[in-house]
Amino acid sequence: MASIQREVHIAARPETAWDALRDVGALHTRLVPGFVTDTRLEPGARVVTFGNGTVVRELLVDIDDDARRVAWSAVGTAMTHHNASAQVFPDGPDRCRFVWIADLLPDEAAPRIAGMMEQGIQVIKDTLERAERERSAA
To answer: Tell me, what CATH number does 106's domain have?
Structure first.
């Protein structure tokens, strides 16, 4: 099983990052605009449309406010297994560390998913830092 982990240090308060991450129906506006172009909530799940046109249904496994962690599982794809989580950790004054982990099968899907995660985590960093600057300016 392939396990992919990406993390980034972000110049934003953990509260800012968590507020955007836990808003699981607003990926396309609050966390990864452009990388995700639409998010539609369903009971226990979300349907995510990525910028490359891929549409994926993700079961929402957990939203943990205490741990600042969201976990999900993509279903109905060519992958035989997929589960992922994203978590926000404090990282000094007004900073946080964002960790995204995906476990998947088959292993051959790993390079494509890793590439998407690389792109997505950069968008997350840019989006959250912009949101923090706007919050501070208000």
So the answer is: 3.30.530.20
Q: How far apart are CA 57 and CA 49, in angstroms?
A: 9
Tally of structural domains, the chain:
1
Predicted confidence (pLDDT) per residue in 87-127, tens digit: 999 999 899 999 999 999 999 999 999 999 999 999 999 99
Does the model's pTM come out above 0.85? yes
Per-residue model confidence as pLDDT tens digits over 2-44: 999 999 999 999 999 999 999 999 999 999 999 999 999 999 9
Cβ-based burial of 119 (10 A; exposed 0-12, middle 13-18, buried ≥19): middle
Which domain range does residue 12 map to?
2-137
SS (HEC) of the chain: CEEEEEEEEECCCHHHHHHHHHCCCCHHHHHCECCEEEEEEECCEEEEEECCCCEEEEEEEEEECCCCEEEEEEECCCCCEEEEEEEEEECCCCCEEEEEEEEEECHHHHHHHHHHHHHHHHHHHHHHHHHHHHHHHC
Q: Distance between CA 55 and CA 51 in Å, rounded? A: 9
